[in-house]
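Give me structure tokens for this 47-residue protein.
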Amino acid sequence: MGKKTIAEFVESAEILEHLMQLGVDYAQGYFIGKPKPLDQIITKNNL
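Here you go.
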């Protein structure tokens, strides 16, 4: 079917490891990176 899976609320390396073992394609959450104000992201990436 070509569908991809996204895990939300990934808050630790242990959770990420389990998700990888399950074959989850993408992850987001505090362990990956905490939310930042958009102006900080734009400045850092020269956008």
